[in-house]
Amino acid sequence: MIGVFANALRDVRVQVPAAVRRGEKAILRCLYDLEGDNLYSVKWYKGRREFYSYTPKETPAMKVFQFSGVKVERSSSNESQLVLDTVNAATTGKYSCEVSADAPSFHTLISAGDLEVVVVPGKEPVITGIKSRYHVGDIMRGNCSSAHSRPAANITWTINGYETNPSYVRQHKPIKDLRDLETVISGIHFVVTPQHFVRGKLKVSTILTI
């Protein structure tokens, strides 16, 4: 016999930040509509492993299970919000929220999202090889490097504020260090033409994004 319930749990969805800086807090939310049902439990998983549960009828209602890279801030977490403190590389992963309604439906739904912990470069990018003056016909050749980030930084070259022709740019493969941080180098190489000057000036710069 199949039971039909007019009121049933629905619309379970998560809000998981796509990127969080290393050392900061990550706030994950699990939103749902009980439609008149009573809540039985909310569980959070990283990958396939459960590390947090909230069951209102139990004492204590909140249970936290030790998991590398996952440090739950108990005072700020509840049945709809989960706060991870001092995130690090091991915190990166897929997080799932499983919501279960109480009797008689015992309906269960799950939703997931990906979180990545990023490390921003500690210093400004370094540009080398670019001269202070150029004339038509000269060859401009230079490099821009950005060190110690995760993931590797994206370097965009601009000429007089506009993104350069992709054919001018050569992106080198990022280099990882022992801390799993990446250094990336991007090169620029082109022949200077009159079109590269605006009011007699040629300004080359880079934009860094993670």
Defining key terms:
Ig-like_dom, disordered N terminus, six-stranded mixed β-sheet, 210 residues, 2 domains, single chain, mainly beta, elongated, Immunoglobulin-like, five-stranded antiparallel β-sheet
Would you kindly provide a written description of the structure presented here, covering whatever features stand out?
This protein has no helices and 17 strands. The N and C termini lie far apart (55 Å). The chain has two domains: 10-118, Immunoglobulin-like (Sandwich); 126-209, Immunoglobulin-like (Sandwich). A six-stranded mixed β-sheet has the order 2-9-8-4-5-6, with no helix packed on it. With 210 residues, the protein is an all-beta fold. The model is unreliable at 1-5 (pLDDT under 50). The protein is 0% helix and 48% strand.
